[in-house]
From TrEMBL:
It comes from Guyparkeria halophila. It is an enzyme of class 5 (isomerase). CDD domains: D-hex-6-P-epi_like. The lineage of its organism: Bacteria, Pseudomonadati, Pseudomonadota, Gammaproteobacteria, Chromatiales. Gene3D superfamilies: 2.70.98.10. The keyword Phosphoprotein does not apply. It catalyses: alpha-D-glucose 6-phosphate = beta-D-glucose 6-phosphate. This is Putative glucose-6-phosphate 1-epimerase. Keywords: Isomerase. The keyword Kinase does not apply. It comes from the Bacteria. Belongs to the glucose-6-phosphate 1-epimerase family. Its EC number is 5.1.3.15.
Length: 292
């Protein structure tokens, strides 16, 4: 197979600089804004990720959809409500460090390090790298390096929006018997007694989930494997909650489901000076007969 069937090259989406990865098995697009994977198509050119039809694509706001990188905090800032939810790196342009491809895969490495702008928000020296590999799966590796003199407490997420046929009644396997924190239900905690059936709105943070999550749909499963992550977040705003998002059409909430690969809340962790930590997610689809 010649390498013409694989590529890693600059492209554009709206006003955003992007990187396009092509392999024999599919393609992916990464925006330099936030190092956000904004598109991933499988071998049948079906969308695996969901991008809001009304997402801003001009750099004025993070992309709504795809896989935003939430770092160095997940959710609201622990002590300063003036700071954006989900950290600041998804608002900033990352540098493309490396593009490469061979017969089987295409690779993009993007990075962001501390500067005056980040230190005003979070006064620490760091380097954050996102490595995206496309072969017959989509692999993301987010590596954080503590370049400061102090230990930090971190929470983080690859905040993945998956395209689904209908979010209502979707089954998500892998979360059975886990403890969760339910933001939608005022922060109560519960235990997931059996396979999760999603009836939006849902906003649940599952703790100590080390394995794969699987989104079951009538004609395909989406597998989300991971390493370096103890938390999985399941979110869909539902028909009422969607009205609070001016970059999601009111009738589009049923087209997506977030299953996020994270370390958050009870699974926050500390990173000492000179230490690094890698969070990874691996995504692939599987065609199935109707197995609802
Ligand atoms: O991951 C779920 C969540 O924390 C929801 O509570 C909701 O706020 C969602 O993320 C989107 O957050 P954003 O800051 O991207 O609008």
């Amino acid at each position: 197979m010649n390498t013409a069937s694989t590529a890693a090259r600059p492209s554009r989406l709206g006003e955003l600089d992007t990187i396009e990865l092509v392999s024999r098995h599919g393609r992916a697009t990464i925006a330099c804004l936030g190092a956000t994977v904004v598109d991933f198509r499988d071998s049948d050119d079906n969308e695996v990720l969901w991008l809001s039809p009304t997402s801003r694509l001009d750099g004025s706001r993070p992309v709504r959809g795809g896989i935003p990188v939430c770092w160095p905090w997940f959710g609201a800032h622990p002590s300063d409500s003036s700071l954006s939810a989900h950290g600041f790196v998804r608002h900033m342009t990352w540098q493309v460090e490396r593009l490469s491809h061979d017969d089987n895969r295409a690779v993009a490495v993007l990075a962001i390090s501390d500067d005056d702008a980040t230190r005003r928000l979070w006064p620490h020296a760091f380097r954050l790298t996102l490595t995206v590999v496309l072969d017959d799966r989509l692999h993301l590796e987010l590596t954080a390096e503590n370049r400061s003199e102090h230990a930090w407490e971190l929470s983080e997420a690859l905040h993945s929006y998956f395209r689904v046929e209908d979010a209502r009644g979707i089954r998500v396997d892998g979360l059975d018997n886990l403890t969760y924190w339910d933001k939608q239900q005022g922060g109560i905690r519960g235990t997931q007694a059996e396979a999760l059936r999603v009836y939006p709105p849902i906003d649940r943070v599952y703790f100590d989930h080390l394995g794969e999550a699987v989104i079951h749909q009538p004609h395909r499963r989406i597998h989300i494997g991971k390493t370096g992550s103890r938390t999985t977040v399941v979110w869909n705003p539902g028909p009422d909650g969607v009205r609070g998002f001016d970059d999601i059409p009111d009738d589009a909430w049923g087209d997506m489901l977030c299953v996020e690969t994270a370390n958050a809340i009870d699974n926050r962790y500390s990173l000492r000076p000179g230490e690094s930590h890698t969070l990874s997610a691996t995504i692939h689809t599987e065609k199935t007969a109707d197995n609802r």
